[in-house]
Structures are given as C-alpha cells and as structure tokens.
Amino acid sequence: MKYVLYILSITVITMVLMYIGIIKEKNLPIELANRLYKKCARKVIKYLEKNESITIPEIRNLIKNETVSVIWSKKRLGITDLNSFVRHLIDYLLKEEKIERISGKVNSFRLKK
C-alpha cells in the first residue's frame, strides 16, 4: 500500500508539472513580445535620462539588434520590422505617459515631466 501512494504522488506531481509547462509554452509568444517592448522602452528611457531628446532614427539605431528570451525556453524573439516596431513602441510609451512629443520638432520626443 505504501508503494502505491508513492507511485500515485509521483504521477500527480508529474501531471501538474506537465500542465504548467503546457500553459507556459502556450503563453510564450505573448510573454516574449511584452519583454521585448519593456526592454526597448527601458533603453529609450535610459537614453532620455542622459540626453534631452530623441528622434525616431535614433530610436531605430538604439534598439535595432535587441532580442529577448526566457530562462525555461530556447526560443528567442527579435525585431524583424524595425519601422513598425518603433511606431508601436512610441505609441506604447506615449500611452504609458513616459514620453511626450516636443512641439515644433517633427518626430522628436522627451521624458514626460
């Protein structure tokens, strides 16, 4: 009877771990995209803390080779369409109210005060 309980407990633990792995694998693309946006946003904000403003071409140069991954997967996510990603990143930063447009300058941004 003792061995049956051991076998059942190992089976239950294995099933729970497999279920967690399946859920994590299903949510992997969303998590990688969120990490990429946050990593690039941190880079832009860090740049703006040292400099007064940033333009779209400077943002492109700053984040062009960024990739992200998670510990439990070999999959990586990088930027393939740089122009589209920069537009979405700027929209994200404006929506979060971390940056603002500089009036009078086209495609120029600064930290929100």
UniProtKB/TrEMBL annotation:
<feature type="transmembrane region" description="Helical">
    <location>
        <begin position="6"/>
        <end position="23"/>
    </location>
</feature>
<keyword id="KW-0812">Transmembrane</keyword>
<keyword id="KW-0472">Membrane</keyword>
<keyword id="KW-1133">Transmembrane helix</keyword>
<protein>
    <submittedName>
        <fullName>Uncharacterized protein</fullName>
    </submittedName>
</protein>
